[in-house]
Write a structure and sequence with these properties.
Blueprint lengths: L5 H8 L11 E14 L8 E7 L3 E11 L2 E10 L17 E7 L2 E9 L1 H6 L33 E9 L6 E9 L13 E11 L2 E12 L11 E13 L3 E12 L11 E12 L2 E12 L7 E11 L4 E12 L27 E10 L1
Antiparallel strand pairs: 1-2, 1-3, 1-17, 3-4, 4-5, 5-6, 6-7, 7-8, 8-9, 9-10, 10-11, 11-12, 12-13, 13-14, 14-15, 15-16, 16-17
Length: about 375
């Protein structure tokens, strides 16, 4: 199931004549798989089998009707490790957690939340939250060396966000990320970020644009790196009907991390995916590609095929195979988003990590 765009769901709700006064709703996802990976290293390769909890989570949310078309909305969502592993940062409220107000003007919220840039393209990842998650390449990528200072397909703390009401299928979103909570000296600079998106959906067609800029500071905390700046923009879209869907994403990042402000880590990447449904079954295919703006042979491609079988409306079993192929000095690795850090297969420069995964997913 694609990631739910929680803030947009709240924004849509404000169009109703009255709000449901439901103070606590319990929800979640249990997603567990048996993964068989090959590091694909140029030298000293290895295999690894493991049980993975693929972004399984537990959440609580609610709304309160405040009258005059206004509602309070809140959510507390946490990652849970069904495989029994303890992951770094696996604490209460480590996923989208916020408090806000919704009304005819839209939605305003504060807390930890996916950025508008992230919201603009994540729903097109047909293998989200597991080994074949496209964040292996998109948003900066998962690798053994940095390809961005801070992930663009991320969930940030210290977020103040506004989401407009939908107007003829078009919704706008903008967020500010405050940084430097760990600042101790006046000489330290404060990191921050701005993220914005235009989101369009009308029937089977959707199309989105996202833009994000990171001002990276020297004070510990959010967006802690150095006194530098990086930007990214993305366009994405999809066509979806009952039997099939096709999706595409393109993104480009730039920075001033190099000598004399040169672009050092900037890259361009794209992702294509498709799904065909027949009965209670579905076959899926995805292709991702990334290449640096400056350094040669740092490119990477990833191809994934998968099969889903629905046992019920809430329960699905699935299988997938994925392979990521680096250029001779490329360092991308299979996604860690679904399995916790570190990445499931770290192959080093020029490696070709691959994996076969059998899993089950239940939503409640």
């Amino acid at each position: 199931m694609q990631k739910k765009i929680i803030a947009l769901a709240i924004a849509a709700a404000v169009s109703a004549p009255a709000f449901a006064d439901n103070n606590v709703t319990v929800y979640g996802v249990a997603n567990v798989s048996y993964d068989m990976t090959q590091s694909g290293a140029v030298a000293n390769g290895f295999s690894n089998n493991k049980v993975s909890s693929n972004t399984s989570r537990l959440g609580f949310k609610g709304t309160e009707d405040l009258g005059d078309g206004l509602a309070a909305a809140w959510q507390i969502e946490s990652l849970i490790q069904i495989d029994g592993q303890t992951a770094a940062g696996n604490t209460l409220a480590n996923r989208n957690t916020y408090l806000g107000l919704a009304g005819g003007f839209g939605t305003v919220l504060m807390g930890r939340h996916d950025t508008p840039y992230n919201l603009s393209n994540r729903k097109y990842d047909l293998f989200a939250d597991g080994l074949a998650d496209n964040r292996s390449i998109m948003g900066g990528g998962q690798g053994t060396a940095a390809t961005v200072g801070a992930s663009f397909n991320g969930r940030q703390p210290n977020v103040l966000a506004y989401i407009s009401p939908a107007m003829s299928g078009l919704t706008g979103a903008i967020a500010y990320v405050a940084g430097a909570e760990g600042q101790t000296l006046a000489t330290q600079t404060k990191g921050s970020a701005w993220s914005m998106a235009a989101l369009y959906g009308n029937g089977p067609i959707s199309a989105n644009f996202g833009y994000e800029v990171h001002t990276l500071g020297t004070a510990p905390g959010t967006l802690f790196f150095a006194t530098l700046k990086e930007t990214a923009w993305t366009i994405s879209g999809g066509y979806k009907v009952a039997e099939f869907e096709i999706n595409g994403i393109y993104e480009k990042t730039d920075d001033n991390f190099g000598a004399l402000g040169a672009n050092a880590l900037g890259h361009r990447a794209y992702y294509l995916s498709g799904k065909y449904n027949f009965g209670s079954n579905a076959v899926k295919l995805a292709y991702a590609n990334a290449a640096a703006n400056v350094t040669a042979n740092t490119d990477a491609t990833q191809v994934t095929v998968g099969f889903d079988h629905s046992l019920s409306k809430r329960t699905t079993v699935y299988a997938l195979y994925t392979q990521l192929s680096n250029g001779t000095v490329g360092v991308y690795a299979l996604s860690a988003n679904g399995t916790g850090a570190p990445a499931a297969a770290v192959s080093g420069a020029g490696g070709k990590p691959s994996a076969f995964s059998l899993g089950m997913k239940h939503t409640f």
